[in-house]
Specification:
single chain; about 200 residues; mainly alpha; 12 helices; about 65% helix; globular
């Protein structure tokens, strides 16, 4: 799952939000110096990623991508699942998405002192460029995926991944709608941040 889903599956406090993002930014971070509440969020992040990567529906969805892009299908699905989460937000959460997004941006700004530098920079960009607002639309999701392709440090064929997504969009959306409630239930049952 990508940033939005990790944040939506976190607890509504600064330590949890930082911990649930930290899985993508913890390289070089001395984890043993972090508060237990942030570490619990990190454990939740890792549990979400494990459940997602191993889920039969997600594995099956990767097969919809062409052979040359399948290696990166997980990255594409992470961003695409954020798109679907926004499109179907009201199905999973009572608060309107726009209201949640603005509240989340304020919380992320307030939590910045708890973040490693790389996370601070990325979250500043998330807020200033309104990533979560832009993810509502497939063309801007495609732009985000193209930017990711350019950041991959070795030669790859990830660019143009929208050509794999577009013909399978309805199927991938259906998969997400089946999968996400199971992920929510899994996180609730683990209760890693309630121990």
């Amino acid at each position: 799952m990508n940033y939005l889903a990790h944040l939506a599956l976190a607890q509504p406090n600064h330590h949890s939000l930082v911990g649930n993002l930290l899985g993508d930014f913890c390289k070089g971070v001395p984890l043993n110096s972090l508060p237990a509440t942030i570490l619990a969020g990190l454990a939740n992040h890792r549990a979400v990623d494990r459940f997602t990567d191993q889920h039969p529906l997600v594995r099956q969805s990767r097969l919809l991508f062409s052979a040359q892009r399948r290696r990166f299908a997980g990255i594409a699905l992470d961003v695409l699942f954020d798109h679907f989460l926004i499109r179907h937000w009201q199905q999973f959460y009572p608060q309107p998405f726009t209201q949640y997004k603005h509240q989340l941006y304020r919380q992320l700004a307030d939590a910045e002192p708890l973040m490693p530098l790389a996370m601070q920079r990325t979250m500043q960009s998330v807020r200033s460029d309104d990533w979560f607002g832009s993810y509502q639309h497939l063309p801007t999701v495609a732009i985000a995926l193209e930017r990711i392709a350019k950041r991959i440090r070795f030669s790859n064929q990830f660019s143009g991944v929208l050509t794999d997504i577009a013909p399978n969009y309805v199927s991938l959306e259906h998969t997400f709608l089946l999968f996400y409630p199971q992920l929510q239930q899994h996180v609730a049952q683990l209760a890693l941040e309630h121990a």
